[in-house]
User: What shape does this take?
Amino acid sequence: MTASTSDRPALDLATIVSTAVRLADAEGLERLSMRRLAQELGVQAMSLYHHVPNKENLLDRMVDAVYAEVDKPAARGPWREAMARRARSAREVLNRHRWATPLMDSRREPGPSTLGHHEAVLDCLRVGGFSVALAAHAFSLLDAYIFGFVLQEQALPFESPDEARAVATAIGEQMGDAYPRMTEMLTQHVLKGDYDYALEFDYGLELILEGLEQRYNAALDGSPATITATSTTTTGGKR
Amino acid sequence: MTASTSDRPALDLATIVSTAVRLADAEGLERLSMRRLAQELGVQAMSLYHHVPNKENLLDRMVDAVYAEVDKPAARGPWREAMARRARSAREVLNRHRWATPLMDSRREPGPSTLGHHEAVLDCLRVGGFSVALAAHAFSLLDAYIFGFVLQEQALPFESPDEARAVATAIGEQMGDAYPRMTEMLTQHVLKGDYDYALEFDYGLELILEGLEQRYNAALDGSPATITATSTTTTGGKR
DNA sequence: ACCTGAACACCGTTCAAGT
DNA sequence: ACCTGAACACCGTTCAAGT
Assistant: This one.
């Protein structure tokens, strides 16, 4: 498992970060210690501090590496499809790197991939005709939903609709009649198979996108001032 | 600060949990160790293990204590106002217990207050006329938004609109022109004072509630079968 | 410049022992 | 029943020393 000391491939920042990501993927964040990571790299723990100031900074870089995997929306093309695609990509990436989900929204030092991603999202919305204010709303709302949903999803004690039914049966039996509405949901919804977390994600995502589109259209109809203010961007935006 | 050994008030589970919550509120979750908590209680670290099996279980109980502070929606009365009130209450409570936010959605052992809260939410929606399926969607969507938003909010490097403007100025200067859309948002939106995170929360919340209401009404109009199926609950629901 | 060994000040938890 | 002291197997990080 551990790389041998002889053929270790010249420790550098990139390999440290990618090894850390791989280790967290495989064994979870709580098992990622500086000592354990160093061992995986065939090196002493203290060598890491030559490339990284501390563990927090390493976590920042790991989160940025995850952001780099998320599809960036293209500036051209319809914003609604671009936002939907980006949201689904983010969910998929976070489910490949479960340790990252609680960290994504809470890092104070965004890296270049994070900033580049955010910039691309804003650019897509603004080129698509969103006012600055509406773009801010859209950004906040979509990101809150995406990360909140995935956090929720990953806390569930099952990973597939089949497992969900098995767990629901077990819980339903032990819960008795103290929580009739939760029991009802388990028996009439989850157990009937009307339950798929990928569909659940899309339901909320489409509801939000629809709401944003309504407000987008209302701004187009209602206030020509807004249109004029953004139209320079709409026609002038280029890659 | 530390309670003296003489007048320590008979260690029990309730005081352990409430002291842990107070300690985490005051100094953050990373400073809450079993040793530190014991010290605060005027007791040896190992005494805690007589009341709590391990630290994870203590965290479960702390999260449940936070859930107990969130307003439960009443079963009677309009669902939309009840859901809005609960969402704002949750945000407020989480901002009093910042350490809890990343934990709320990710605990695997829900306590009685957590289950009671979820039950009350489902009951309010079902009594209000939601089908089981629509109640499931509403629950998932609202919770994802609430926790995702607060997580995002708490990661921001400022706590007031005034601080936000100060930070935006500093960031704007150091960012240069690498991220024009983000710069634009800082200068034209945040710095103009059009930026208040409480309003931002309400914007997304109302958008989601409006979307749910549209789907609720569509179900009432479109499929009389759904109405019949839920109407027994609507009339039969009692506290 | 890059890596290391020993040490410091911590962790959560087990265990045998005290009252 | 409830609490404790010592110990185990860990942490992140500092520091002085090696090459």
In short: Residues 1-6, 226-239 of chain B have pLDDT under 50 and may be disordered. Residues 33-35, 45-46, 49, 54-55 of chain B lie near DNA strand C (CB under 10 Å from a C1'). The CA atoms of residues 17 and 62 of chain B lie 6 Å apart.
